Amino acid sequence: MDEEYVPNYRVEDYQELKEGQATILFPKNNEVFYNPVQQFNRDMSIAAIKTWRDTNNEAKMLRFNKSANPNKAAPSTKFTILEALAASGLRSVRYAKEIEDIDFILTNDLLADAVESIKRNAHFNGISQNLVRANQGDAVAVMYAHRDKGAFDVVDLDPYGTAAPFIDGAIQAVKKGGLICVTCTDLAVLASHNHPEACFAKYGGNPLKAEFCHELALRLVINSLQQTANRHKRYIEPLLSCSIDFYVRIFVRVHDKPILVKNVASQTGIVYHCRYCGTFATQPFGTVEPGKGATLKYHVSAASAAEHTCTQCESKLEIGGPCWLGPLHNKDFVQRMYDAVSSTSSSMYGTQPRMKGMLKVILEELDDVPFHYSHPELCSAVRASCPPLTKVNSALLNAGYRVSGSHTQHGSIKTDAPPQVVWDVMRSLVKEMGRSPKIVEGSPADRLLAKPITTEISFDQHKDANPESRRIKLVRYQMNPEKNWGPKARHSEAPKPKNADAKRKQQDRSHTPEDSLAASVPEAVADSESAAELDTVSNDVKKLRTEDLVKAKGPSWKAIAGELGIHGSPSKVRRRWEMLQPMTTSMWTKSEDSDLALAIQKYTESGRRLGESGSWVKVAHMLRTDRSPRQCFSRWTITLLPRQGKALPFTRFHKIRGWAWSESENVLLKATVDGIEHVQDPVGTVSQARKHEPWLLIGHDPEGQLLPQFWKFIAGCVQTRTAPQCKTRWQTICKKAQPATAMSLDDVKRLVQLVKIHGPSWSMLATKFFMGRTARELRGNCMQWEKAEKKFAVNLLDIDPFSMIRDYKGNSAMRPTGDDGFYCADGKLARVGIRGKRGPLTPYFMALAKTKSLGRGRADVTRAIGPASRGNTRLLSNKAIDKLVAAISLHKNDWVSISREVGLPIPTCRRYAEGLADRLRSIQAVISDSEMDKLAAASKPEQGATHN
């Protein structure tokens, strides 16, 4: 027993903070001493320990009642707690004040100031020294020292980072049936593919870059706990496993039952995961089968049926684990905990709404199904928009499978349906919504959709598709309530220097560049055995201490590097100097804004220009407020210039922004580009132009168009804009100056030939060969050409449509009205082409339609001479038009009969009849009477024939 604690603190020197029923004191100048993010962790821990206490006492009483010895004393309800890594002691203080029947809490930490804080906070909260026993020592050594008779009922591990070094000690320091509470905050290792070697070294398994990475993190930690316990013939039972914010929190009960250890192989295994579609499959290491009587037989699992590629999209598989494949939670334990939290006053738990939401979602999880799918990921794999989650859940439930969410991720789908059924649901969705045109043939998405649907899918709303936690609107997936919601810096005690007075003087000095540079000397150089190399580095550091050299040389970093003799390019020397400068990170004040404007005014009045080499370095030096050049540039361009309505200066810090172009910029851009375009003899390169005059002799291809890479040179001439901005602005100017006319037939032919040579590089073709045309316009005309060739099965380059039309002796309304090849019917332009608009390919459509036989050609003729304006009515299909023509010919003016036969309202039939009056005459001019009779017969419902 330690000696009595004598308080030697003043409350006014500390800041009070209340959490739950505890009030702690922490230093006012220490921001990492308390992290409000962990309040949810502490609230959950208190509720879990209370629930474990009740279940443990019930088990003790059950064993006592079954005892044959009536004189045996009733078991004690008291229990002990070890907090191995206590820090400020807030957790232990809350345990002592909010949990009943605690015998004592051993609150341990390695640092002396942390132990002093534990004693101070316990005394301030009126807790006896016997209840909260502060101890200074190594956590592992403390746990090993209590692994025999002094074991604890509850061991709480809440380290900064991984709990791996403390797991073995915790397993041995807890009593039979005791509770271990483990926190791991290193999700950058557990739930990321960036450090698989570190994860395997700490937890014995590989992580995966998957949507279920946080659930896999839980299973990796549980597997590490399980494997460690098995070595001591102990078995752990996961009671509650939570993935919270940036950490995982796991509560496990420890059993001394060697028979249960034999089942671990069947509950441990690996997971195969598809890198593209997210399909996964698990493979346990062992199996358990019933033997004779009550015995069990244990076998090694057969080889997995999983191949090296995904069964759905044929992409590569990756392996995760080994990991725990058994249940993550004990549903009875979670239910009791949820009931206790719901019945407790909200003043007890500050995070009660979130606790209820997470526990309810955990209760709804399928406990025998490891891992889950992601709703957005499934839709992304097939390039489909996301339908409501309840629609996908209903389809799986209607197919006879179970489905739930997961507390580890919003929008998760945990189901016992095999992957084939899950993807049948997605294929049915795509079939219902339509396939995306972005899917490339042979891609994984194409292979996914190419597989047949083998399951009968129904999207009817199922009563269990919407979980109860969502219906009653619990806080299920809480968003970060404030900025910087995450872990803080590690709290540590710096070692005392040998010369304390000299160290204190060094800390009192202001930060200087040479201190940072000396501290940034690479360890490889500092540990080098070569004294000469170390002396060279030290001399370089000393040379940089002279600020007069930098002020004298100004931005001439080449001269500075040569003067100092430092190895490295001048740009590296400049970046190093800028990094070492003391920098103010506080908000800009009004006085600083005015000083910055004055410094820029003085700089520009001296005949220099912002944007030249070293300009912002000089401005920052003139400001004299420890602002970096980048800070000055950002403040001037982002905040001050927009207030004045001015354009951005072009510097190396410049980023593309959407500021309006001024008239002077437009004139300068036009003059620069026009000067280049009027050159008759284009020779040379950009590099040669910068060295030799005149620079206007470059930038052309043989056809006289501007080269795409030359826009950077033009941006240098404009000075206030970047190359992409100049290019976009010039295209806009050309588009405004050019009349909005369709491309000529010769241009389309030239475009098709260029696409065969250069490929579908629409932006390059628009910039290089069709200035003023957009990439979208070129793509549309080319697609129209390909559509016509595919439709008529001919090579349009081999056809002369005008000669075909001139040789035609049919209706005069079909004759061309000019050299542009457009045709007129009833004084209206024919509408043929993409989306019903006239275009340069109209003559091809008209000519081919007249030369084709009954069928596709007639449909093209009827479409070509249809109504000129859509109005607010939808366009009828070819089949509907044929049916309407036959009905009008049969019933004459009986609009009721026509409407019934066609299936359209009478006003719609009348509206189309006005255009069909001329249409019938035009069709009869092209199609014979026998073909019209054939058309009327084919359109009757009893025939059952269709017309394409």
From TrEMBL:
InterPro entries: Homeodomain-like_sf, SAM-dependent_MTases_sf, SANT/Myb, Trm1, tRNA_met_Trm1_C
The name this protein goes by in its record: tRNA (guanine(26)-N(2))-dimethyltransferase
Keywords assigned by UniProt, alphabetized: Methyltransferase, RNA-binding, S-adenosyl-L-methionine, Transferase, tRNA processing, tRNA-binding
Biological processes, Gene Ontology terms: tRNA N2-guanine methylation
Any GO MF annotation of the entry: tRNA (guanine(26)-N2)-dimethyltransferase activity
Biased composition range(s): Basic and acidic residues: 490-514
Transmembrane segments: none
